[in-house]
Write a sequence for this structure.
């Protein structure tokens, strides 16, 4: 039985407690979704990717990865294809807010004071914001005022240089990256058996008017469910993205967290 | 890329849709918790076990397993050691209710009409009840009135005969089985690398008065966190339990669900 | 006008205040339901019984009985016949949680610090748990940290010996006791004019599969609404149950509460 | 065992069902509070009075009285003395709204279509309004559109003539009647053993500025807790009030409800 | 750019901060509605009037007027014509409660400690009460215990003398004043271009039974939407009302608030 | 009294009804905030601007402007300076969601079927999404399925060409435009008396790391509260922006809405 897994839930409680208490391991919480990602990728891409980033960063800084959120906020047409798509299973805003609020408070109750939300589903962003605010407030009411939460989406750590390198023909923008080169390359690097690039549909990036309409207009979403073509995705690009984002996130957390000496050593190693 | 995984989230959406639409695959939703399970087992026992039962049953009846709920309702002292224990990370009742309600409604929106909640954490039970009631009500308001939900906890399918066979010295009751012979044997059969039987604490079954006290009295919970000793757990017992419960659950779902011809054939094979 | 009623609501406020402030009377809150109990008993059995236990125990230990909760959580098929039965009028889970939370907090605001929830409706159990947790949390936020709540269901105080004595032909289990020997005997001992034993339907104990189905399958519930036959109920059995449970509950509360000297004297008398 | 009690909860379910189905008995729901009523009356005046009015009216029109709401909305200083007073135990607004909403919906589910809310606690008024609106909306979503709810407070049926007769020295207004002549006279007529008129404090009617202040200014509430003197209360006045209000309410419900022929006959008798 | 507007939202933040911090300006929050007011007045009468009273009083006592609440609680038939009327756009009770709670807490977070709710829509009253209670509670949990909130409706400051003067033929009561002499006169004095007295419908005051019925009975509401005739409204009466209410409210706030020396001077000037 | 105001609340109900029923006027709902906008602009910039865009567009297409939302979601550090800033008064996420949900449903109840949310505060965006989804769902439960909602933020209609023209030295991005050239220019064009450009602080655009930290780090926000310098703002730029956005929004709504013939004529004129 492992006593040094980066995954908190793989530990027995005494080992978990030692990590949280003495090593002051920060808690990294991956947030994903169950959302269609085209014909060529499965429905849990948004869970697998932030969980892997969380794992890598946890190993670097001595953190612990919490069980991931497997369901996220409702997919939106202009960034995720829309919640009407088959396979997309989402939570109400309030449900997501309350679930993350609860989990943050519970970890803090055990003594954790440093948290990183590792988001993998764009639509979660603002409900994370609200959840963190509510959790901090209730912790404050309980006299716990020294909690710090870093909130991030892994793609925000892709540098300008990397974008230029990966999208030599021009970057369509994160909004339409859904199921495109970024996610597909990462999946190819990490879980190639879960990708069927040959099933991917090649199409021009989706283009939307500068507003949203509800109920959604299904014809706005490409039939494939992806918002840009993954055809230029590759395992190599995935490895570059993995490295760049892991490094960026690890640096951010080292900058923000009061890591224990042990964690710092491990991090610096 | 697999097109016939029992795990819904491993499918691309067109494959998922085909399964739900044509094969009328029922959806099996595992509900667990992040909860201490003594010195000898990790914190996600209650997720791993129902997920595995769901997987086995899904393969038998042609169903699909939804992503598991990794967090559950607050651990109670007399059946789970208590929510004050390190490593136990729980949801408010209302949060769990709303999350399961949301997920049921979303799957139904895609066309699924048959659901099984596969519970692995006793404390979830009544919040599942409420979630199902609220989901059915809102679906009814949307004109969807033909949904059927089977709610079960896997241990309720352990037969009297099996209990007699596995507990020759007497069965302490499910209530104090937390971290005991049942769960440990199942984990030994499925994930031996996640169990350290040698770290298990041998103690008499916890004994509680016929009432609860809040805030909890920590001295009521054995220091180990388990409520009965796992020392008589074994891989063999785990296999027996796996078989008995899988068979029982599969039969129940075959009895209750209108499985498609294909699924029936597969189930009968 | 009485100044020493065990029922808090029968007191004028100065008398109530004296009891709570000086005698440190614990508050006992009966929780019931409006639920069918077969052809032979009225709909408020689950209110009358815990209220009477609360009254008797309050007299023994110097406590005060709060007004009862006349509505409870939704009746379940396998323990209460089901919420589809005529006459059963229930609350949503969240409503019950919030109502009990509010009432606990209000009594604590007046200075009470010791509470016993006397439950008479099985389905209420987990929503009581949640209500108590939320109330303690909000009281904590208000700086009140010395509150203690004992939660109990009166039938859990029926001893093994009593079961053997009352059910010479074998005990069907509490789950199917709904409207059976226990409740009917207690009602015969306390409110014989509200029972028509001759209208009771004699049938074998209901038998259910090890799972629940929603929407309920009405055919699972015996047509009578009771889950086991009350024909062996008697006033004498009711008196035995009254004594055994009252004694057990009173002892539990004496063990747990810091009763005032006066209350102790009264309790010891 | 009674089969014709006006109290719904005293019936067995088949008798209840017959009344609701065939006789189309309207449901009368008394709403009260647990609230101090001075030195001379107990805390449940606001439950006892509307319950008795409901009982009398139910007998006249063939209705059924639901179990009363024993807790109400927070007492306000200018009409109930204030929620800071000892003995006053109140619900949050949302809790009261949801509880009444739930109960209305449940009775409607059994087939009842006509309801009267018989209020005995002024502070409940607007939360009743909201509860009724929410219940009607959810019933509408369930396809039930023929429900009618009459909402009333019993004192609104005291006629001008009666006021002139009962308050020969001038009527202080309902707002400050809290614990005064009206309620005390009714209690003397109905429950004399629960009143100690000799303990009543005689004081001028409370006088308040035309605004409220929060947190309350305790000095605004007379030390007695009553807002006007009950010294002119009498059993005779209570009987007059009982008659006038019962008659007024019964007429209102006869005007508004489609009573069955049997109920009409009974009502006309 | 103004630095001394009575409207908080017209200030830049440094000017706002100076007013709140140093001058200890109380915050006045106008609450209105979007509600039909007959053929002769627009839908925002209930916003315009309390905002103007707030402005006048703020100028007198050195306070700041918060942005008004433009939507209020559901219009009721017996005081506002009913929520079924065209043009009436209302909030759920809980929404209004939470919105006012949030706003109060935010202003308190900046340092404000004295608040006046200036209500212009009768139906808001009890939801204001609840909002203030919830806000004070959460502020208390945050350690802020010195907040004072005055809650008022402007018409409660119309003196008996003024009523006698303005309604020489008898006062129909505030309940049926909706769209009548009071509101119309005030609008004529303040916004004559928004009133078309010639379109006003002259009719006897609406008369209602002493109870409410839901769903509303549209025939109870006069076809005009007003509950009494505005024909005797005049600009002169409006000016009298403006003066009387402004003076009354200003005095109340001076009595209740710890105004800064500067504000007192300005108020006394 | 006007009968053709673009502001719905300035109409009497018969005129409002005629516009909604016959002319099928779409409803435009401006959403703003009370949020600091630096030293040189007042706190209600985010209300004034979308209200003016709504007014202009309403005049073009024959729509009606609803009363604006004067409070919005919590200001965020990287796009609005942060909710810790003085003068910023915000709503909880759930409050905003519920308020907009309520208002949409009410307008739809009167017969409106076409809505445009005109957002002026970036932080509102995702709570608008949720509100619209909840409103559409509840309307659907009420059998109203033909509602269409367009959601937009006015700055999304600034074309690439305009950006190039207005920001000759490079566009810092919308995220840091808070209080910068866009908003200041618009305010100069519309409400010059509310702007003090000489008080504006000139500073480089704020630069943030690719993540958020909670509680906020106040040192991240420029002391001025603006995120980029407004010094290049001008009335001329404001006029250009007004024209470009008004035209863009009007075109979008003409494309999406089934405007009545009259409205089309007016729009085409």
């Amino acid at each position: 039985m492992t006593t040094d897994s980066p995954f908190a839930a793989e530990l027995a409680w005494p080992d978990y407690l030692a990590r949280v208490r003495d090593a002051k391991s920060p808690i990294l919480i991956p947030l994903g979704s169950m959302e269609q990602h085209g014909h060529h990728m499965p429905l849990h891409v948004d869970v697998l990717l932030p969980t892997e980033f969380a794992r890598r960063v946890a190993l670097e800084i001595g953190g612990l990865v919490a069980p991931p959120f497997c369901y996220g906020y409702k997919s939106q047409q202009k960034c995720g294809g829309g919640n009407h798509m088959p396979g997309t299973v989402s939570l109400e805003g309030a449900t997501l807010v309350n679930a993350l609020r609860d989990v943050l408070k519970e970890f803090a109750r055990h003594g954790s004071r440093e948290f990183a939300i590792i988001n993998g589903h764009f639509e979660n962003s603002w409900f994370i914001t609200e959840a963190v605010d509510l959790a901090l407030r209730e912790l404050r009411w309980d006299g716990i005022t020294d909690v710090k939460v870093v909130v991030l989406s892994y793609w925000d750590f892709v540098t300008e240089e990397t974008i230029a390198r990966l999208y030599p023909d021009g970057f369509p923008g994160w909004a339409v990256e859904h199921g495109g080169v970024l996610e597909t390359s990462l999946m190819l690097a990490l879980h190639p058996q879960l990708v069927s690039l040959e099933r991917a549909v090649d199409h021009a990036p989706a283009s939307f008017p500068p507003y949203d309409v509800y109920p959604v207009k299904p014809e706005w979403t490409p039939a494939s469910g992806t918002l840009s073509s993954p055809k230029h995705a590759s395992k190599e690009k995935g490895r570059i993205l993995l490295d760049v984002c892991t490094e960026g996130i690890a640096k951010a957390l080292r900058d923000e967290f009061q890591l224990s000496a042990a964690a710092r050593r491990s991090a610096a190693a």
